[in-house]
Structures are given as structure tokens and as C-alpha cells.
Amino acid sequence: MASSSSSLPMPLLVAFLLLAASLVVAKPSAGPLNITAILVNATRHRTFARLLRETQVDLQVDKELGEDDTGNTFTVLAPSDAAFLGLRSGALNSLAQQDQVELVLYHLLPHYYSLPMFVTASNPVRTQASGNHGTYTLNITTDSDMRVNVSTGVVRTPIAGSLFDDGEKLAVYTLEKVLLPYDLFGPRSPASSPPTGKAPSAQSAADVAPAAGENRAAAAWLRGGWKNLMTAFVALAIAINCFASIN
Ligand SMILES: *[C@@H]1O[C@H](CO)[C@@H](O)[C@H](O)[C@H]1NC(C)=O
Ligand SMILES: *[C@@H]1O[C@H](CO)[C@@H](O)[C@H](O)[C@H]1NC(C)=O
Ligand SMILES: *[C@@H]1O[C@H](CO)[C@@H](O)[C@H](O)[C@H]1NC(C)=O
Ligand SMILES: *[C@@H]1O[C@H](CO)[C@@H](O)[C@H](O)[C@H]1NC(C)=O
Question: How many Å apart are CA 206 and CA 216, to the nearest integer?
Fold first, then answer.
């Protein structure tokens, strides 16, 4: 009765906080999977992290990974910052907004592959960009040493390392090249001919897509954007509250 939590010895309190902090850092998979956090943590993948955020693809991935009932799993092939620097200058900016979304979605496979599981991939492999507007597939080859090559028909590059693998839902690998889709960068693709019209940048990708006859599947996939943003804000508010009450 006489002793209260306010008289908790300082060293014990500090130890407790340190323990709590170390648990948060050591077990990322205990919380919700956060693709942005994983990529930012990887430090060499800021450009790809930014593209995921700008296209709101990150919110959609985290949402689908967070919903246990969907059973959705992903493999992310994340180009390094050096890979983006290696692109022909203007290669990204010359793409219409919707095509930039396709490019990002092209680096996501709607299936979890651990490194050994790539042997089971059957070519051509569908990506998150595969849909009405184009095939957006890629080919995956492996050898007995578990080396994996990814080929788009324009670019071929090995998987250079593993950034994250929770063993069931999400694997993130690093590439030293950006995967340029054949649909966009092949010989007779839109990006290799003069642009006919640019998607209005003020509109969201979801609004532009059906009118422009773009990939509806990807647009539908992105449509949850605002709802997810609200959820993230609420989560942030709750987190701030928790912190405030601890201190
Ligand atoms: C995911 O991580 C990023 C970067 O650390 C952070 O800005 C964002 O709020 C996180 N999202 C969620 C839903 O926790
Ligand atoms: C961030 O990096 C640290 C150290 O490499 C690692 O232990 C931790 O699991 C990483 N967090 C995420 C969210 O990937
Ligand atoms: C990957 O590509 C390199 C060169 O492009 C080639 O030498 C190697 O045999 C390929 N490996 C696999 C597993 O396809
Ligand atoms: C991908 O694999 C399919 C099926 O094996 C093949 O028909 C196609 O030519 C390959 N494409 C590339 C770019 O390697």
C-alpha cells in the first residue's frame, strides 16, 4: 500500500525500458510487417522505398500482409539506390504516372518465395503488374548453387542478397539493376516512342487508370489508399498516446 509505482527504483525502470526497446528492435515480425520500414532499414534502398510510398503501393502491401484471412503473400525484388543511379537519365521521368506505378508493381511478386523456392517458379512468372494492360511477366532461372537470375527480356540480373524473410508471408531481396518491363522498355513499347499524352499528375493513379484504359487490376489494388492512410494516422495517434502515458 505504502509503496507505489512512482517509487520504483530508477535502475529497474531503466532496465525495463531497455528490455522493451530491445524486444521491439529484435523482433520486427512480432509487429505488423512494414515494407517501408524494412527498406529504410536496409539503407541502400531509399529510392525504391520512396517510389513505393509515392505510389501508395507500400500501404496496400502492408494492409494485405496484415489481414490474416486474405492469405496474400509477397516477394519484393528491391533495386538498390545504385541500380536507380545506373538508369539512363530521364528513364523514370519519361514514364507517365500510371506507368511508374506499373514499374513499381512489376518488382512485386504475388507469392512468397524463399530462396530455394524459386526453383518451383514456372516461367513466365506473373508480377503484381500483370493484368489487362500488359503481361508484365518476368523469367526466373536458378542453378544448383541456389543462384537466381531474374530476366525481363530487357534486363537480366541476379538476386544479390536477402534483406528480409519472415519464412511465410514476405521475402525482400536486393537487386543491382532496376527491372525494366518489356511492356514499357521493349523495342515497340510506349517508353521507346515519343509520349502521346501524359497522365494528369494531380489525379490519383486509381482515377486515371480506367479512363486511360490502363491496368485496371493495379488501379483496383491501389484504390484502398485513403482508407489505409486514415488507419495509419489512427495507429500513430494511439502510439503517441501510449508513449505519453508511459512517460
Ligand atoms: C512503416 O514504417 C515507416 C518508416 O519507418 C513509417 O513512416 C510508417 O508510419 C510505418 N507504417 C506503419 C503502418 O506502421
Ligand atoms: C533493422 O535492422 C536491424 C539490424 O540489422 C535488424 O535486427 C532488424 O530486424 C531490422 N528491422 C526491420 C524492420 O527489418
Ligand atoms: C545468370 O546470368 C549469368 C550472366 O548473365 C550467367 O552466367 C549465369 O549462368 C546465370 N545463372 C542462372 C542460374 O541462370
Ligand atoms: C520466358 O520464358 C518463357 C517460357 O519458358 C519463354 O517462352 C520466353 O521466351 C522467356 N522470355 C525471356 C525474356 O526470357
Answer: 8
Q: How far apart are CA 43 and CA 163, in angstroms?
A: 10
Q: What is the pLDDT of residues 1-22, one digit of tens each?
A: 444 444 555 555 555 444 444 4
Contacts of 19 (CB under 8 A, 6+ apart): none
User: Cα of 39 to ligand 1 centre, how many Å?
Assistant: 11
Statement: the pTM of the whole predicted model exceeds 0.85? no
Structure confidence by residue, pLDDT tens digits, 65-86:
888 777 899 999 999 999 999 9
* Amino acid occupying residue 28: P
**What's the gap in Å between 65 CA and the centre of ligand 1?**
14
**Residue 62 CB–ligand 1 contact under 6 Å:** yes
The single-letter DSSP state of residue 134 is B
Give rounded-to-5 percent helix, strand, coil for the chain: 45, 15, 40
Residue 123 in this model has a pLDDT that exceeds 70: yes
Name every residue whose Cβ is closer than 8 Å to that of residue 14 and which is 6 or more positions away in sequence: none
For a substitution probing ligand 4, which of 122, 123, 127, 137 has the most ligand atoms within 8 Å of its CB? Answer: 123
